[in-house]
Amino acid sequence: MNSPLMVEATDLGAADLATLLNRLLDNIGSVVLGKPEVIKLAVVALLAEGHVLVEDVPGMGKTLLARAIAASIDCSFRRLQFTPDLLPSDILGSSVYNAGTGDFIFKPGPIFANVILADEVNRTTPRTQSALLEAMSDGQVSVEGNTHILERPFLVIATQNPYEFEGTYVLPESQLDRFMIRLRMGYPLRSEERRVLSTHRSGEPVETLRPVVTGEEIRQLQRAVRKVRVDDAITEYLLDIVHATRDGDELNVGVSTRGALTLYRAAQGLALVSGRDYIVPDDIKTLAVPVLSHRVVGKSFLQAGEFGAAEAIIRDIVDRLRVPS
């Protein structure tokens, strides 16, 4: 995961940015074993100011990934266990009457943290799911007519089991669209699973993890992402992919303009994490499936984000388009 970083200096120099990135990736990788690409894409979402949806069966390390990211940053972390009886006020907060002053005082909810783990997000009602929309898209929440700005960095990592449907509520397209990247953990290699068994003999390694970067350093990395250069040919290649999702026969709903911008920003983040100050076509190709597949609706499936079908269609589009030299 270590790589030289060649970027224009922002608040920190190029060498300092590289040190921060390697320190963060290595710290998360010390407890999330055998998943360097998953870690890399989750960090890309963090630095590109996006959010992550992690889908897989129970016990694959979804919660561990979120806890490791939060523990690696010196900032606040809250875990929200989504259940059918969870209310929007349980997430956002509410006003409480102060008998001493005769005023109502706003008590912030758990959404007012830097890293949020929304565990089993599809187990709560659409009304409560929608409480996350404004926070994820605008970095603010509106409660009782008042707007409250959330502190940066702000990252939501949501988890769900895509193979269990009893007692769940499918995430609507508008909610899925707020996630920059959708990931699957996948089964580990036998050798990595052996390491997991060994490292967990005396407890949970993530509980001993210590912060290696501060919130301000993450904000500096986020500013550096926006300085990553994008050649016109790369922009056209990105738009070729986006427009192919709208013009083909396989999809009823293609990628929106917000989806195109999300892919653009994520590619800037991947370039920075990969040690470059410019995007290459491989950045777009790597991110096309995790960024775009949950934003389309195909003619052979009803819900946006259908796993296999959407991914296969996006992958086929990428494979058949000409890559800029």
Descriptive account of the structure:
- This protein has about 325 residues and is of the alpha/beta class.
- It has 2 domains: about 1-225, Rossmann fold; about 230-325, Orthogonal Bundle (Helicase, Ruva Protein, domain 3).
- It is about 40% helix and about 15% strand.
- The protein is built from 13 helices and 13 strands.
- The protein has helices at about 15-30, 35-45, 60-70, 90, 125-130, 135-140, 175, 190-200, 215-225, 230-245, 255-275, 280-290, 305-320; strands spanning about 50-55, 75, 75-80, 95-100, 105-110, 115-120, 140-145, 145-150, 155-160, 180-185, 215, 250-255, 295-300.
- Strands 3-6-9-1-10 form a 5-stranded parallel sheet. Strands 2-11 form a two-stranded parallel ribbon. Strands 4-5 form a two-stranded antiparallel ribbon.
- A hairpin with a 4-residue loop joins strand 4 and strand 5 (about 105-110).
- Helix 1 packs antiparallel against helix 3 (about 60-70), helix 10 (about 230-245) packs across helix 11 (about 255-275) and helix 12 runs antiparallel to helix 13 (about 305-320).
- It is globular and about 70 Å long.
- Mean pLDDT is about 90; it is low at about 1-10.
Strand and helix layout:
Layout: H1 14-29, H2 36-47, E1 52-55, H3 62-72, E2 73-74, E3 77-81, H4 88-92, E4 93-98, E5 103-108, E6 115-119, H5 126-129, H6 133-138, E7 140-143, E8 146-149, E9 155-160, H7 173-176, E10 181-183, H8 190-199, E11 213-214, H9 215-225, H10 232-247, E12 251-253, H11 257-273, H12 281-292, E13 297-298, H13 307-320
Parallel strand pairs: 1-9, 1-10, 2-11, 3-6, 6-9
Antiparallel strand pairs: 4-5, 7-8, 12-13
